[in-house]
Amino acid sequence: MTAKHRIIQVGSYAGSPTANDRLARDYDVVELWKYPDRKAALAEHGKGVDVLVTSASMGCTAEIIDALPDLKAICSWGVGYETIDVKAAQRRGIQVSNTPDVLTDCVADLAWGLILAAARRIAYGDRFVRTGGWGQVHGSIPLGSRVSGKKLGIVGLGRIGQAIAKRGSGFDMEVRYHGRRRRDDVPYTYEASLRDLAAWADFLVVATVGGPSTFHLISKEVIEALGPKGTIVNIARGPVIDENALVEALQTGKLGNAALDVFEHEPKVPDALKANDNVVLLPHIGSATLETRLEMENLMLANLEAFLKTGKVLTPVVE
């Protein structure tokens, strides 16, 4: 019998249908999360290991990379990679892969669900019915706002940002965007100033990458520029928004609504957001459909298999 190839798995793929089972079936997996002393586990089992699998939530630190002298590839489940020390990997010539494209449509769909939920007060209305408010003589909910024909601002026009913008055309919306640079291959207007984009928009959707380069990119100034009739939607990463400034703006009426799938200190969500009826909250489920999670799993495994066969991953992270 041929010995299975040994790999390191940083954490359990709880959000993927069969990833753990498929890895265990085909590889000799060192399940790092099961060891109370990671450093000792890496020292004992890490020699000769050339592939590590992880995810955006589990990450891979420079400490883990340094503990694996033979590591040559990191295969991650998910599109985000801010929790992986890519620079430390690159200094060693270690390839890093993620799973782009396969989750684009589901995340864009959810962004639109949040836009509609915030504008038309869908979550509020659901609670209103469930708690018996509709049965009261004078029971009614505050009026929402129209989505069709409004102004849609997008922060970060990558794959997901473009998919969100495309859906905006179905609502007869004018679309503008802000990013690190102007794009010549899209039909949307570029705003060099993020504050100006926020001041123009009715809905501001955050679809940029996470990490140090975008930490608190959506600042107090940007939030207040969006204004008391504006709505901010975040399907990117929580720390992109200054959460304290967001809470303050909502409480003081300087911002109209927020619809959030991600938060600055997940899974902790400020009580002030939970208590605010102008806020829609979701538990980071942008890619959480059966179809997309399976495609993410398949692509992560395909990257692993491709590296072992050819020495190259299929979807490398390029910085």
Overview of the structural elements:
By secondary structure, the chain is of the alpha/beta class. It folds into 2 domains: 6-98 and 291-310, NAD(P)-binding Rossmann-like Domain (Rossmann fold, 3-Layer(aba) Sandwich), CATH 3.40.50.720; 104-281, NAD(P)-binding Rossmann-like Domain (Rossmann fold, 3-Layer(aba) Sandwich), CATH 3.40.50. Helix content is 35%, strand content 15%. The protein is built from 12 helices and 12 strands. The protein has helices at residues 19-26, 38-45, 62-66, 86-91, 104-119, 122-130, 159-169, 194-200, 220-226, 243-252, 271-274, 290-310; strands at 6-9, 28-31, 51-55, 73-77, 95-97, 151-155, 174-178, 189-190, 203-206, 231-234, 257-260, 279-281. A 7-stranded parallel beta sheet has the order 8-7-6-9-10-11-12, sandwiched between helices. 40% of the residues are buried. The mean pLDDT is 95.
